[in-house]
Amino acid sequence: MQITLKHLEAFIWVATLQSFRRAAEQLNTTQPNISNRLNSLEAMVGTRLFERDAGSVRITQSGQALLPLAERVVASVDQFRAAAAGEQSVTRLRLGVTEVVALTWLRDYLRIMRERMPKVLIEVRIDFTSALRPLLMERAIDLAFLNGPLSPYDVRNHELGSVPFVWVGRPGASPSRERHLDFAQLGAWPLLAVGASTRSFTELQRVIEMTGAPETQIIASSSLATCHQMALDGLGAALVPDVIVRPDIAMGALELLDCDWLPSPMNFTASYLARPVSHVVTAAAETAREVARWQVRAG
After folding, report:
1. 5-85 has which CATH code?
2. According to the model, what pLDDT value does residue 85 have?
3. Do 5-85 and 92-163+266-298 have matching folds?
4. What predicted TM-score, i.e. pTM, was given to this entire model?
5. 86 Cβ neighbours under 8 A, 6+ residues apart
6. 95-126: per-residue pLDDT in tens?
7. Tell me: domain 165-259, CATH 3.40.190.10, correct?
8. What H or E segment, with its residue span, contains residue 272?
C-alpha cells in the first residue's frame, strides 16, 4: 500500500481541527473513512500520529514532526494542479467582507479575480468585523477583509491599509456656523453612525459619556449605505469612513465638519487561517493587497 493524497489530507485536517467529525465535513466524506485513512497512514509510517481517548484527539510528538512535511506535499500538489490546468482547480472561495470594502474596491477585486482565476467561484458575505471573525475561526468562510488584525497564532494577516473616519453633513444644515466644532456643538445635531457592534460606535458612546451629554441623539443604522444616505438627506452629522464620502465632498453634496474628536481609524487586513495551506486563498489575499493599495493611492 502507498501513501496517497487522501491519507495526507485526512492527517492535516484532523491535526488542524482536532476532530474526526469536522475533518470529515471539510473533506466531504464520513467519519469512518477518516478513521480508516489515518489507521492506514499510521500503519505505513510505523508510528502513532494521534492519541484518541474519550472523544478527544491529540496529535503526538511524531505527528507534530511529520505535519509540516505533509502540508508541503499537499501544497505542492495544489500548485502542480494549478500549473497543469492553467488556473486553480479549487472551484469555491468563501469570502467575508465588511461594508466599507463592499462599497469601495470589492467590485475591482472581483473583476481582477475573475481574470486571474476564472474557474474559482467566489461566494461573498457582507457583515461587520465582529460577525466575520468567528465565521473565519469556525471555517465557515475562507478569507475575510475586515478591521484587523486578528490575534490567534494560526491566522495570517495581510495589511490592506488604514481608513480614517470623518464627520460630514449636508451643506448649510449644521446647527452651528462655527468653522471648528467641539464635540458638544456637534452633539446639538443628531449623530448618524453605524452601530452597535462596531468599534467606532463603542468609542462614540464612550465620548458622549465622558463629555456629560447624555441628551445627544444617536441614530444608529446597521447599514453604512443607509447612514450615508441620511447624511445626504440632511438628517444629521454622519460619522463615516472618508473613502465612502470623498465623491460627495468633491461634488459639494456633503461638507466636512471639523470636529475635535474622531474615533480610531480602521486598519484593514486580509485574514485567513494558515492551516491547511491553500494556494487559492493565499493568492486571493495577495490580490486583495494589490487592489487595496490602488484604492489608497487613488484617494
Report:
1. 1.10.10.10
2. 60
3. no
4. 0.76
5. none
6. 999 999 999 999 999 999 999 888 899 999 99
7. yes
8. strand 266-273
